[in-house]
Amino acid sequence: MSARNLLLLSSSRVHGHGYLEHARAQLEDLFKACHVKTVLFVPYALRDHDKYTALVRDAIAPWGYAVEGLHTKDDRGQAVRDAQTIFVGGGNTFVLLRTLYQLQLLEPIREQVLQRGVPYVGSSAGTNVATRSIHTTNDMPVAHPPSFEALALVPFNINPHYLETDPNSEHKGETRDERIAEFVAYHSRPVLGLREGTSVRVEGSKATLLGARSAKLFQSDGGSRELQPLADLSFLLSQE
Fold this sequence. Notes:
The protein is α/β, with parallel strands linked by helices. It has a single domain (5-164, 171-237), classed as Class I glutamine amidotransferase (GATase) domain (Rossmann fold, 3-Layer(aba) Sandwich), CATH 3.40.50. It has seven helices and eleven strands. The protein has helices spanning 24-33, 49-60, 76-82, 93-102, 106-115, 125-128, 176-187; strands spanning 5-9, 38-42, 66-69, 86-88, 120-123, 157-159, 191-193, 199-203, 206-210, 215-218, 224-227. The strands form two sheets. The protein has a seven-stranded mixed beta sheet, sandwiched between helices. The N and C termini lie close together (9 Å). Keywords: Cytoplasm, Dipeptidase, Hydrolase, Protease, Serine protease. Hydrolyzes dipeptides containing N-terminal aspartate residues. It is found in: Cytoplasm.
């Protein structure tokens, strides 16, 4: 796993910023370090693949990078093998994972990222599928993938868009924390709650929390704790 080079974003949009603008420095650090000129975008989490790819292109092209949609390629497996970097966008995680299974893209992506060091960027659903499984997504299961098991580029789970319970809320239903705790109780696997504007940068066996906000770690023993910006998350990779 020493070749691993990941940037896992909680989201592509943050209040007060344009699309992907909040993550520009993180993205450009990754692209420049890996000499990336062209981004292969995977748009399968939303229905309109052309429109989605154009959205990403409009955001990234002014920075000096070309964007190609994987859906436009005749041989998608070869396109993944030829990619300088792979960016999997957000949307519905169930739809995304089902499509990756249908197109037989899970193993090609895993091989490129884990064995050849091709950079991987995920946002929201794209971050969910980078983890062990999609059990901790916030999305509704509008599609049925053959398995919840995902790319397993990291050995833990992430909950993008993590939002703690408002103590002044009158809502008495199940909270996000309770749902994540239920998953941990069944699977004994840690879950990292990524708040908006935060991300995880993985370089080989090193992982770091980026962004201006803390993240909440739901531990495999049932406890939880806050992790501050720039926290070393490498211990989460040791479970491999």
